[in-house]
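call fold(seq) -> C-alpha cells
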Amino acid sequence: MKKVPLFIFMLAFFFGLMPVITISAQEKQSDDYKLRMELYKKTAAPSLIPWYFLAAVDQFERQIHKEIPEGRVTAVRPEQYFWNGLGNPNQSDQQTPGIAAMFNGWASDGNGDGIADRNNDEDVLATIAAYIASYGHTKSDFKIALWNYYHRDLTVQTIINNAKVFKHFGTIELKDRDFPVPLGANYSYRSTWGDARGFGGRRIHEGTDIFANYGVPVKSTTYGVVEIKGWNKFGGWRIGIRDIFNIYHYYAHLNGFEDGVKVGDVVKPGDVIGSVGASGYGPPGTSGKFPPHLHYGMYKDNGYSEWSFDPHPYLRKWERMARN
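ret:
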C-alpha cells in the first residue's frame, strides 16, 4: 500500500478534508444515562433505598429546573437550611456532616472525602437517601417522606409513578414516542388548541382533535402510569396518563377502553388504551353530539402548578417518527 506523505495528510486535515471524530449528542446522552444509573445504584446499596426511587426523585427535579447544575449529572437541589440545618452559622454549600447533624441538617458525605458538598452528585443523593430512609423502607414510608419534603400531593404521586415506570422497565433511558392512532387509519387533525368552546360555559379548547372513524384504536404516546379512567361530562369516556416528564396526557371522547386497562397500570408507547368515539357533553353514556374523534391534551406540571399547552407540534413530530 502506497504511503501518503505527511504534509499532504496535514493539509487535508487543515482544510477539513479528513473526517473529524466527534462524540454525537446521542452518545453523550447515553453516557449521561449510564452515569446516572451508576450513581443511583451506588447510593442504593448502603441506604437500602431502591435505585428506582432515587431515580424517580431526580427525574421529577430534572423537569422543574431549567438546567442541571454545572459539573453535575443529577438535578436534585436540597434547600440550604435542609442541608445545613436551621441555626447553623455555616450556611455554605460545603458542610461537615457531623456539625450539620447537630443543627438537624441532613448534609451527608456520599463519596467518602469527609465533606458534604451540595454541588456534588454523590453527596446530594446520599443525603436524599438518608432522609428517606429515616422514615422507613416501605412504599408508605417513602410517600410520607416525600410529602414532608415537597408538601404537595401531585408531586408525591408523580414521583411514585416515575419509580413504578423505572422499576417496570429496569432503566431510565425511555425515549420512544408514538402517534396516538394507527398511521394506516383514515384520520385528520389540525391545530385547534385555544379555540373557543361553548358547552358548559365559555372556555378554550385545551388540546388537538384527531378525527377518525368509530373504533379506531387509541394508543399511549409515551411511557407512564394510568392516573384516571372513567367518565367526564366534557370528555366523555376518558383516560389520563402521567409520564416521566411531569406531563399529563389526556385522551377523551373515547368509544370505550381496552380490556384490562386500569388505573395504576404502567404503559409504554404504542400500548392500546381505548378506541375513538364521540362520547361526552352530558351524563354517562351520552354520545353522538359531534363527529367521532380523539381529543388529545397535554398538561405540564412545574412542581407548583399545572397548565395546558399545545400538543399539535408534538403530534406532528411523533407522526413523522412513526412514519420513519
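The first helix runs from residue 6 to 14.
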